[in-house]
Design a protein that fits this description.
The complex is a heterodimer.
Chain A: E1 2-11, E2 14-24, E3 29-33, H1 40-47, E4 55-60, H2 71-74, E5 75-78, H3 90-99, H4 105-114, H5 130-142, E6 148-152, H6 160-175, E7 179-184, H7 187-193, E8 196-201, E9 204-210, H8 211-218, E10 222-226, H9 230-237, E11 243-248, E12 251-255, H10 259-268, E13 275-279, H11 283-298, H12 303-314
Parallel strand pairs in A: 3-7, 3-8, 5-6, 6-7
Antiparallel strand pairs in A: 1-2, 1-4, 8-9, 10-12, 10-13, 11-12
Helix pairs in contact in A: 3-4, 4-5, 11-12
Chain B: H1 24-36, H2 39-62, H3 73-85, H4 88-109, H5 111-118, H6 123-157, H7 168-195, H8 198-218, H9 222-227, H10 232-239, H11 252-276
Helix pairs in contact in B: 1-6, 2-3, 2-4, 2-6, 3-6, 3-7, 4-5, 4-6, 4-7, 4-8, 6-7, 7-8, 7-10, 7-11, 10-11
The chains are: A alpha/beta, B mainly alpha.
């Protein structure tokens, strides 16, 4: 379990993490979602003590990370793929990391096998592709067989097979009752992998809820209807909770009513339909909506001057 | 990654020995693995040995003293020691670069984040780095200096200049030279940890070793002259003094204390900043 209390980090006058509170429960996969610069990596760095909080604190299983007697057994962390000396082989890197905790060479070979690095383990890391570097980072995180796994953008640079492997890995970890925290700026990835989401925007927690709730709340399905009698149909469907938008003279986009119901009502009114298409708002759109709100809320004072830059940040 | 086979579906549940926790012995082992598994280490040490032996040969061959056997024994010993330790002047530059790289290489590659995640209290990692670098350098320096004696002594013996390795006036300066090399390496490690940059660390260290004596000698003031023996490289030379013709200002043990002072200042600065700064 990871607990953050009023966790804050300033870099000079810039606030990277702004008094966030959250709890990452064991036994499920928690996703850290947010645009670049939202404070995900900074928060993860503070969890393992690489950055010192300006205020507040964060603990792992009740203790600060550095207070654990075997930190690598407690937390396995992948912060970025480039946390390895480029002149050393993958095997020697893992061996040196493990040696601090008396982790034997047998375990090093095990994690190399687990991450599919056998063929390159003796090569110098400087020549590794992004994907291989990522696998090595994950191997290092698994080295201590940790109770908590923290992965910052683990699927960056991985091929589709690797992405699936990471998904299975974190699901398996959570199923064993361990704590898993992984970050991504891709909502679609989170929808597939995580049970619970903590959404960050500009250093604050925007949402902290089960994945299904967040997606459900942020996604509203739209139905596109093409009909020569669009105007008639539009009046037929008018209700307070239904929004009808006319895109072209014969095309409507309707929100708030199911496609089947539109079809039934058109049929009973004798209206010919040429197209009836349910359109799910994509997760990315849902996510943009979510973070966009935070951006608007934050810039209420000067909407025009900062808006383009902030929209960029939200992306 | 297309060449690798499909990864297993799940991590093996093999448990680790329950005793595996973070220990200083483990950190020492880790730093030793790190030191020996980058190329810069073996290159640097090989260069130290080669330069040392080469300089000893050149110095001994170049020395031209008609009637060497007529010199007093103490002076003969001094000649042999000087020839055998001449390489230390160059070796110190090489181990200084190595010392900086041992830590700045971790910053430039991001490795430091892995190191400090494994050792979140941080300072033990610095002490272990220093201890491992010191030990390795003292051993390499001893091999280089004793080897240099074995090169120089036969050549000089041919010119009638004799000295025994087991004479305290010979073996002590040889080992003092090795000790100085190790202390310079650790001093440089501290500078590297303070500056966290290879280029900056190397420039600063070599500046202190090479340029400071030159700059100071160009200042026409007594205080500048008085300060000279307290520069790290001059104190290093003082550690190896073998009772040559000119009486030294500092005794070898005093020179050792001066070098230790430089080292402690550098390590203390490194420790303070390592503890305080974000990695």
């Amino acid at each position: 379990m990871i607990q953050a209390q009023s966790l804050t980090k300033h870099y000079g006058s810039k606030t990277a993490v702004d008094a966030v509170d959250f709890t990452v429960q064991s036994g499920k996969v928690t996703g850290f979602l947010g645009p670049n610069g939202a404070g995900k990596s900074t928060t993860m760095r503070m969890i393992v003590g690489l950055s010192r909080p300006t205020a507040g604190s964060v603990t792992v299983n009740g203790k600060h990370y550095h207070e654990h007697s075997a930190p690598l057994r407690e937390v396995g962390v992948l912060l970025d793929a480039k946390a390895v000396h480029t002149g050393r082989s993958a095997y020697n890197h893992l061996l040196a990391m493990g040696a601090t905790h008396g982790i034997p060479a047998r375990r090093v070979r095990e994690v190399i096998e687990l991450t599919g690095l056998e063929t390159v383990a003796r090569k110098r890391v400087g020549g590794f592709s992004l994907g291989m570097g990522q696998r090595l980072g994950i191997a290092a995180a698994l080295l201590g067989d940790p109770a908590t796994l923290i992965l910052d953008e683990p699927i960056n640079g991985l091929d589709p097979e690797g992405v699936q492997w990471v998904r299975r890995l974190v699901r398996h970890f959570a199923a064993e009752g361990r704590t898993v925290l992984l970050s991504s700026h891709l909502m679609s990835e989170m929808a597939l992998t995580a049970d619970h989401l903590i959404v960050l925007g500009r250093g604050r927690v925007i949402a902290d809820a089960p994945v299904a709730d967040i997606i459900g709340a942020a996604t509203r399905s739209t139905v596109r209807v093409r009909s020569p009698h669009a105007g008639h149909l539009s009046t037929l469907l008018t209700r307070p909770d239904v929004t009808v938008t006319g895109l072209e003279p014969d095309v409507l986009e309707i929100v708030g009513i199911a496609a089947s119901e539109i079809g039934d009502r058109a049929a009973s009114a004798g209206i010919v339909l040429h197209e009836l298409t349910p359109l799910s708002a994509s997760l990315e759109e849902a996510y943009m909506t979510l973070t966009q709100n935070e951006v608007e809320y934050r810039t209420a004072g000067s909407p025009d001057s900062n808006a383009p830059e902030l929209q960029e940040a939200a992306r | 990654m297309s060449t690798t086979t499909a990864p297993p579906a799940a991590p093996s549940a093999a448990r680790l020995p329950t005793a595996s926790g973070l220990t200083f012995a483990g950190i020492l082992r880790s730093e030793w693995i790190k030191l020996r598994t980058v190329r810069s280490t073996s290159w640097s040490y090989a260069i130290v040995v080669v330069i040392s032996l080469g300089m000893a040969a050149i110095m001994s061959l170049a020395l031209d003293l008609p009637g060497g056997a007529d010199l007093p024994a103490a002076l003969q010993t001094s000649f042999v020691v000087q020839a055998s330790t001449f390489g230390v002047f160059f070796g110190q530059l090489v181990v200084a670069v190595l010392g900086v790289l041992v830590v700045s290489g971790e910053y430039s590659t991001g490795m430091i984040r892995s190191t400090l995640t494994a050792v979140p209290r941080r300072l033990p990692a610095l002490w272990a780095k220093a201890a491992v670098l010191f030990t390795a350098t003292v051993l390499v320096g001893s091999v280089a200096n004793v080897g240099s004696f074995l090169v120089a002594a036969p050549i000089l013996a041919g010119k009638g200049i004799h000295a025994s390795l087991f004479d305290g006036a010979v073996i002590i300066p040889l080992l003092a030279g090795a000790l100085y090399l190790a202390l310079v390496a650790v001093f440089a490690l501290g500078v590297g940890a303070i500056l966290r940059s290879s280029a900056g660390g190397i420039a600063a260290t070599l500046g202190m070793l090479l340029l400071l004596p030159i700059v100071l000698s160009m200042i026409p003031a007594t205080w500048a002259t008085d300060l000279m023996p307290y520069l790290i490289s001059n104190a290093g030379a003082g550690m190896m003094a073998s009772g040559g013709p000119a009486p030294a200002i500092l005794e070898p043990w005093q020179a050792l204390l001066v070098v230790l002072g430089w080292l402690l200042a550098s390590l203390a600065g490194a420790a303070l900043l390592l503890k305080r700064r974000d990695a």
